[in-house]
Amino acid sequence: MTTTTHARTPATHTGAPPRRSTPRWWADAVGAAAGVSLIVVTALWVANGGLRQLSAGGPEAVTALGRLTGLLASDLLLVQVLLMARVPAVERAFGQDRLARWHRWTGFASFHLMLAHVALITLGYAGTAHTGPLGELWDMIVTLPGMLLATAGTAALVMVVVTSVRRARRRLRYESWHLLHLYAYLGVGLALPHQLWTGADFVASPLARAYWWTLYTAGAGAVLVYRLGLPAWRSWRHRLVVSHVVPEGPGLTSVYLTGRRLDRLPVRAGQFFQWRFLDGPGWSRAHPYSLSATPRTDLLRITVKDLGDGSARVAALRPGTRALVEGPYGKLTGERYTGGPVVMLACGIGVTPLLSLLGELPYRPGEATVVYRARGEAEVAFRDELEWFARHRGVRVRYLYGPRADRTSWLPAGHAGHDDAAMLRRIVPMVPHAHVYVCGPDGWAAAARAAAVAAGVPERRLHTEQFAW
């Protein structure tokens, strides 16, 4: 069964020259810098009498711990801002899935430290003044400079954290979650300034002031440059517009876009953009869609599955509609491909970035295998293009049909009696020697990755990226 409306020849070249591989030490350097920042903050606290206060015991020690937790929370909040700022060097070093894990960890860690800071400072001040904690908290909010702003910022951060819990996130549409998540910037902006006005660890030392102002400036500057300035400049420079829209099958739509100087757009096959289409109300909400064809100097293609309000309206886009973009993002690219066998494991709409990679990677005939997991033939997208690659580039395509297994597995129910790794080696005997690319829903992708590792694929040749929010 062919799911496209007409035959098309896939693109097999990129518009921009290949970018050099990101050095592996970049990720280690960024992680080390984050760790060093926490050490610096602790050292500043010690230099400002933190250990002396702690050894004194009583309310003074509680206040000292409150200062330390507040400083660590502030530092992690600013690290989180830098992770959210889409700095290209950081994006290339980590990739989206790893960056998301860091972002989540720093977010929850800074939030719990912030709650500890509020509780400890309140108890310490109340003990010193011999007042009740609730009365002391209210007195601080209404009398200390910046505390009303800090309270509003804390409320915004509480809302962001609550909606980031997996159970709550599953109940929200992507559009709603994304809008609420932007309040993290407001929360950070309101919660931190009170420390500049009243925090002893900020006002007592020129070195501390220099450190914190540098960190604040770097965070704010990164957001302004990379979340606002660079996307605005690229959208203006390349002026992407919808060329035509093609229905690919039930609930699946491809959008073709043209623009200016696409040869200068630094995008690679396998990457994605955050897209905003200027087609009416709701255009301001961005949606992450991967390229589903190798980028060309005159044309880009994305393919969208109808999973919500934003994706459903894509099918109604009209030719000439302007598109604003953020990106490109993602590390599911061929920058680390060193030649030799290629194995692509796809599930559902996850085939789209892998399809774009098929056109870019310089594998030889017979070296590439695509294993495509779907519920049935009707859900297979781009069968005609996969067959084109099979005929013209010697790609082997294997379809695995059926419902989910009743256990955690990348295999469908009909094959679930087999060991995951053994079945992978049976389908693709060369997999231990191949570069393996995996894309699909989170649970499935984790199972496929585990099967590949168990089948003998080294981590350096295993390429995955998860796009869940």
Which secondary structure elements does this structure contain, and how are they paired or packed?
Layout: H1 25-47, H2 50-56, H3 58-84, H4 88-94, H5 96-129, H6 133-143, H7 147-164, H8 166-170, H9 174-181, H10 183-191, H11 193-198, H12 200-203, H13 206-238, E1 241-249, E2 252-258, E3 272-277, E4 287-290, E5 300-305, H14 309-314, E6 323-329, E7 342-347, H15 351-360, E8 368-374, H16 383-393, E9 396-401, H17 420-427, E10 435-439, H18 442-454, E11 462-464
Parallel strand pairs: 7-8, 7-10, 8-9, 10-11
Antiparallel strand pairs: 1-2, 2-5, 3-4, 3-6
Protein name: Oxidoreductase
Pfam family, one: NAD_binding_1
Organism: Virgisporangium ochraceum
Short description:
By secondary structure, the chain is of the alpha/beta class. The protein is 51% helix and 14% strand. The strands form 3 sheets. It has a 5-stranded parallel sheet, sandwiched between helices.
Describe it for me?
This protein has 469 residues and is α/β, with parallel strands linked by helices. The chain folds into three domains: 25-223; 239-329, Beta Barrel (Elongation Factor Tu (Ef-tu), domain 3); 342-464, Rossmann fold (3-Layer(aba) Sandwich), CATH 3.40.50.80. Helices cover 51% and strands 14% of the residues. The chain is built from 18 helices and eleven strands. The strands form three sheets. It has a five-stranded parallel sheet with strand order 9-8-7-10-11, sandwiched between helices. Strands 1-2-5 form a three-stranded antiparallel sheet. A three-stranded antiparallel sheet has the order 4-3-6. α5 (96-129) packs across α6 (133-143) and α6 packs across α7 (147-164). The longest helix is centred in the N-terminal third of the chain and has 34 residues, at 96-129. It is elongated, with a radius of gyration of 26 Å. Residues 1-7 and 14-18 have low confidence and may be disordered. This is Oxidoreductase.
